[in-house]
Amino acid sequence: MKSVWAIVGAIVVVLLIAVGIYMVDVDQTQETVLPEVSVEGGQMPEFDATVGSVEAGTKTVEVEVPTIEVNPPEDAEGEPVLGDAAEDAAAATEEAADATAEAADQAADEVTEQQ
Question: What is the pTM for the complete model shown?
Answer without folding.
Answer: 0.27
